[in-house]
Design brief:
The chain is of the alpha/beta class. 54% of the residues lie in helices and 11% in strands.
Length: 220
């Protein structure tokens, strides 16, 4: 995963410089912008990040920026910077999904703690998304017959029972099981069970099987 970056959006250049210096002193990558439009142009969706955003901005406000990001499907954690009298706006931002808000002037350590928390959240989201994509790719590589065999294995049936029900030889079932384990990168039955339920619980089930089968109702 790429190194994280903290975006700062505030029309006060001296404030941007001050915060940038603070963040760079703890080895964080920083990109400061003075307008929302510049941030939207510079945003790199491939890097973990967070956004330190002034709630009052010319042309496009911080709250409007939050709406734009949501419309574009960008889930970057936002920490709003607020001044005197902006608390009600900050509450609105939090209700709409902002990560946090800080009041000017800042306590440096409190600001750093919030930023580290926001970056960590984005990293965890990205790891989860990457893992889900790997799961989807692996399970989509299974043929329908292999998936049927897997469901039966997960439900606790032996190869002999599965072979009888599918009217094939136990050797054929063992062959399918070996291919399934290889495709899913599973070293054992517990690995298969974990992968199967990670796949199912992540909401990926409907992408392949819109109707639950016996493996969805039977205990392992």
């Amino acid at each position: 995963m790429k190194d994280p970056i903290v975006y700062i959006v505030d029309d006060d250049k001296s404030l941007c410089d001050s915060i940038s210096y603070l963040l760079e002193s703890v080895h964080l990558h920083v990109k400061a912008c003075h307008r929302v439009e510049s941030f939207l142009d510079d945003y790199d969706p491939t890097r973990p990040s967070c956004l330190l955003l002034d709630i009052r901005m010319p042309d496009v406000s911080g709250l409007e920026c939050q709406d734009i990001l949501k419309q574009r499907g960008i889930s970057i954690p936002i920490i709003f910077m607020t001044g005197h009298g902006d608390i009600s706006m900050a509450v609105r931002a939090m209700k709409k999904g902002a990560f946090d808000f800080v009041s000017k002037p800042f306590d440096h350590q409190s600001l750093l703690d919030r930023i580290h928390g926001a970056v960590k959240l984005d990293q965890e989201r990205r790891r989860s998304k990457e893992y889900q994509q790997k799961l989807l790719d692996r399970f989509n590589s299974l043929s329908k017959r292999e998936f049927d065999v897997l469901e039966n294995v997960i439900s606790g049936k032996s190869s002999k029972v599965i072979a009888d029900e599918m009217q094939v030889s136990p050797k054929t079932i063992e062959y399918h099981r070996a291919k399934i384990s290889k495709k899913l990168n599973a070293q054992s039955i517990p690995d298969l069970v974990k992968l199967f339920y990670d796949y199912k619980n992540a909401g990926l089930w409907g992408s392949r099987h819109p109707v639950e089968s016996i493996a969805g109702s039977n205990s392992v």
